[in-house]
Design brief:
about 725 residues; alpha+beta; Beta-Lactamase; seven-stranded antiparallel beta sheet
């Protein structure tokens, strides 16, 4: 036999809650306003956070595009200006190399013509593109400078006759093709003292001189780039523009405070500032982030000369400056979103306050109307049909559905009088009917029937009548034996008809489960209650119907103190005991929450004296509400609860006296007086914390005086204990 009763009064073992359980408990403990705020703000941020990330990304994309465009424009402008300088000087050197005087003196190194040719040329040439010629001369085929004219202080040109001071690499110059120019590295003007912090940058260029198809030497020009750099690399506090040499060392910068570093670069100082650690490429690379800076670079003039001289233009800009506008927009956007969250929070808070005021006003109106009409929501003699007023039994309810309906077992629901058996059975029927369409696998077919007062020879006919209430056009759709109205309609005819009804196409493709919810089946087990004919043979035949039909037909039978093996060893047994403390509290509080209030002491008093029995909880609550209304009080107090106990004792007085002394009790059969042993057992229970021992009659014999706790122990009710103690 499967026993579903597992409720214990002893303290359960301590187990650590899971993270999910801990969060669920914390959530349940929060006030309703916090739940609304957290849910609303959470939903808002689910929208705002991705939106903020997406819009911010667009801001930064636009800023990156703007930075790239700006850097490309700067690099292109500076590169074009330097190209123009070199192209113009290349054209000048071409003209100089083809001058007849140079052609004539080239074979002798132009030593004697230095002043006549180069001095005169240097005196008359003008400054172009912010550069100035500081020297014009001639190199022989060995790379030695044989003639030159130099522009000195004040623009005075002289032709020194001392030993030449410059020598170039002969092999490198020899690689020049006709029409090519050799560009030397940018260096310092070595005529300025070496201890000066800044020496002017100069650029030397060489062009071959060919006479009658034979190379005779090279004309050279030295350009002072000081003005060019000053005009081109304009200082800005937003970024720094630099020119790097072939070794990626600093040659020029828009930051004029770095001229001392430039001297070291031109002097090939080992401590010079270089940027060979930057990820520069041989092609244009713009707007890449390196550390905390945005850099853009462009390689220039690498293919113009066989000298291999290559320069790199570099722009470096702090990321914070490059993306200043995007950062500002992101801050504004985040602030707008936070402001939105604050406004929504304020609206929810104000809305909650307004709602509470409306609810309070509505509650006051309802309470006033309830007082005027003497409204009392509690009843204790009728089953509860409204699902909203059905409290507790959650675990047992789930077990009955799982083990009985879905697991294929018949279920017995046993309990004391007025323990809520009928309400429990009704709730199961309602739940199965609600799930009839929703459940994806089963088509539930619940059938409720009260067997009390149904004679044995009419049982199967009445049961079939209840089943057919849910079958439309059953007379034309079926050929049931029930319709033929035989003189006797018994178990055999019922079995055949049930099989045919279950085979109907109701429910589509889902598996059908017909569940018979039979109430008050304890009348089948007590001849004293007029259950003649409901013998062991009847019960065995009834059980065989379910065995023959299979899992598609199950029974959930409820009654008072039903034997555990009522329908065989495979039955599941549920003992319907007292409510849990929180369930009893809800049974009192929820029906009156919109109308009346009750203080905690009164609530505890009602729960204690009801023994958490559903009918007694409602009995005491009904009397307490009635007393409050009679006194026109503002809430139910402890005094009302105490008087409610007295009124409940008045209700039970005739039954208790009939039980104790014998006689006819209201709505009960005549009772024989208790024996002296039985009276002694009940009185002894007062001294043993309500535990009753040595009673020989069934517990139903003492209905209202004793109840069965979840452990199966017989106990005095608190009300009977009071009555018994007053009896003396």
């Amino acid at each position: 036999m499967t026993d579903l009763h597992t409720t214990q009064l002893t303290a359960p073992e301590h187990t650590h809650p899971t993270v999910g359980e801990a969060i669920a408990r914390l959530w349940e403990g929060l006030p309703s306003l916090w739940k609304a705020l957290i849910s609303a703000i959470g939903a808002l941020f689910i929208v705002l956070v991705p939106a903020n990330a997406f819009i911010s990304t667009q801001f930064f994309n636009i800023s990156r595009d703007n930075v790239r465009t700006q850097h490309q424009q700067q690099l292109a402008e500076i590169s074009d200006q330097l190209d123009q300088v070199i192209n113009m000087q290349t054209q000048y050197l071409t003209l100089l190399a083809n001058m007849p005087a140079v052609q004539a003196c080239a074979p002798m190194g132009c030593v004697d013509a230095a002043n006549e040719i180069f001095g005169a040329e240097l005196r008359q040439i003008t400054t172009t593109l912010n550069v100035q010629y500081t020297e014009i001369g001639f190199l022989d085929l060995a790379g030695r400078e044989t003639a030159r004219a130099i522009r000195g202080v004040g623009g005075v040109v002289n032709v020194p006759g001392d030993e030449t001071l410059y020598t170039a690499d002969r092999a490198a110059l020899a690689q020049l093709q006709a029409g090519e120019v050799y560009i030397f590295a940018i260096t310092r003007d070595n005529r300025i003292a070496a201890n000066d912090s800044y020496q002017m940058p100069i650029l030397r260029m060489a062009f071959p001189v060919t006479v009658d198809g034979a190379r005779q030497g090279y004309v050279t020009a030295v350009l002072n780039l000081d003005d060019f750099f000053a005009q081109t690399f304009v200082y800005s506090d937003q970024d720094e523009v630099m020119l790097l040499d072939s070794s990626q060392c600093l040659v020029a910068s828009s930051d004029d405070t770095r001229r001392s570093e430039l001297y070291r670069t031109w002097a090939s100082d080992p401590t010079r500032v270089c940027h060979d650690n930057l990820p520069l490429q041989d092609w244009d690379v713009t707007a890449q982030q390196v550390g905390s800076d945005i850099i853009s670079s462009k390689v220039i003039h690498g293919a113009l000369t066989p000298s291999g001289q290559t320069w790199t233009l570099l722009i470096t800009q702090p990321t914070a400056i490059a993306y200043a506008q995007a950062n500002l927009l992101q801050v504004l956007l985040t602030g707008a979103h936070l402001l939105t969250a604050v406004v929504v929070t304020a609206l929810i808070f104000l809305g909650d306050r307004a709602t509470k005021r409306l609810q309070a006003s509505d509650k006051a109106r309802l309470a006033a109307h309830a007082r005027d009409t003497r409204f009392n929501p509690f009843t204790f003699n009728l089953p509860v049909d409204d699902p909203k007023r059905f409290f507790g039994r959650t675990r047992l309810f789930a077990q009955v559905i799982g083990v009985g309906v879905l697991g294929g077992s018949n279920v017995i629901v046993s309990g004391d009088l007025q323990s809520g058996k009928t309400s429990f059975l009704r709730r199961i029927e309602q739940r199965l009917r609600d799930q009839q369409i929703k459940d994806p696998q089963y088509y539930f077919w619940p059938v409720w029937m009260d067997v009390q007062g149904v004679p044995v020879d009419m049982f199967y006919r009445v049961l079939m009548q209840e089943i057919l209430r849910r079958v439309e056009n059953h007379e034309t759709r079926t050929g049931l034996r029930y319709h033929k109205n035989p003189p006797t309609y018994g178990v055999r005819q019922f079995r055949e008809d049930v099989n045919e009804i279950i085979a109907l196409p109701d429910g589509g493709q889902k598996e059908k489960r017909m569940v018979l919810c039979l109430d008050n089946v304890h009348y089948w087990f007590s001849e004293e209650d007029g259950s003649e004919g409901f013998t062991t043979t009847f019960r065995d035949e009834f059980r065989d119907v379910f065995n023959d039909v299979g899992s598609q037909l199950r029974v959930i039978a409820a009654g008072t103190n039903i034997p555990r093996n009522a329908f065989g060893a495979l039955d599941a047994y549920v003992q319907l005991g007292t409510l849990e403390p929180d369930e009893a509290r809800r049974l009192i509080l929820q029906p009156i929450e919109d109308y009346y209030t009750i203080d905690d002491a009164a609530l505890d008093q009602l729960i204690i004296y009801s023994d958490r029995l559903p009918a007694e909880v409602q009995r005491l609550a009904r009397h307490a509400v009635q007393l409050m209304l009679e006194q026109d009080a503002h809430q139910i107090t402890l005094a009302h609860a105490d008087r409610a106990v007295d009124r409940a004792l008045t209700d039970w007085e005739p039954i208790y006296r009939s039980l104790w002394y014998g006689g006819a009790a209201p709505s009960q059969h005549a009772l024989k007086p208790l024996t002296e042993d039985e009276r002694a057992a009940l009185k002894n229970a007062l001294n043993y914390k309500g535990v009753v021992a040595l009673l020989t009659k069934p517990a139903s014999r003492f209905a209202g005086a004793v109840y069965t706790d979840p452990d199966g122990i017989l106990r005095l009710t608190r009300l009977f204990s009071v009555w018994l103690s007053r009896l003396g």
